[in-house]
Amino acid sequence: MDHNQDFDLDGILDGLDTEAPTPAQDAPARDMTPFLRKIPVRLTLEVGGADISLAELCRIGPGSVVELDKAAGEPLDIKVNGTTIGRAEVVVSGDNYGLRVVELNDLQLDSLA
């Protein structure tokens, strides 16, 4: 017995309103600011980087020194989820390291404050 014989797909589809509004048209605009403010992000301070060969990497061990591409005393990059947003200096805050902001890119995040 074929169970699909009694199923009238064409009749069901004909009964649907083809001009139905999309949910975006029906829903009022929402202020997403409170929601966006709660999204966690990872803030990091990047000291610098170096391009080295695999052979050089294999030679690295305890006591090795790798010269980075930042000059001593130069502000370091502040990154949020890997994207640079500004520059800062390292400070000591209690028992931890911290950062003192030197400059910020124009992020236009004022509405999230």
UniProtKB/TrEMBL annotation:
<keyword id="KW-0472">Membrane</keyword>
<protein>
    <recommendedName>
        <fullName>Flagellar motor switch protein FliN</fullName>
    </recommendedName>
</protein>
<keyword id="KW-1003">Cell membrane</keyword>
<keyword id="KW-0969">Cilium</keyword>
<feature type="region of interest" description="Disordered">
    <location>
        <begin position="1"/>
        <end position="29"/>
    </location>
</feature>
<feature type="domain" description="Flagellar motor switch protein FliN-like C-terminal">
    <location>
        <begin position="36"/>
        <end position="104"/>
    </location>
</feature>
<keyword id="KW-0145">Chemotaxis</keyword>
<keyword id="KW-0283">Flagellar rotation</keyword>
<dbReference type="Pfam" id="PF01052">
    <property type="entry name" value="FliMN_C"/>
</dbReference>
<keyword id="KW-0282">Flagellum</keyword>
<dbReference type="InterPro" id="IPR001543">
    <property type="entry name" value="FliN-like_C"/>
</dbReference>
<dbReference type="InterPro" id="IPR001172">
    <property type="entry name" value="FliN_T3SS_HrcQb"/>
</dbReference>
<keyword id="KW-0966">Cell projection</keyword>
<comment type="similarity">
    <text>Belongs to the FliN/MopA/SpaO family.</text>
</comment>
<dbReference type="InterPro" id="IPR012826">
    <property type="entry name" value="FliN"/>
</dbReference>
<dbReference type="InterPro" id="IPR051469">
    <property type="entry name" value="FliN/MopA/SpaO"/>
</dbReference>
<dbReference type="InterPro" id="IPR036429">
    <property type="entry name" value="SpoA-like_sf"/>
</dbReference>
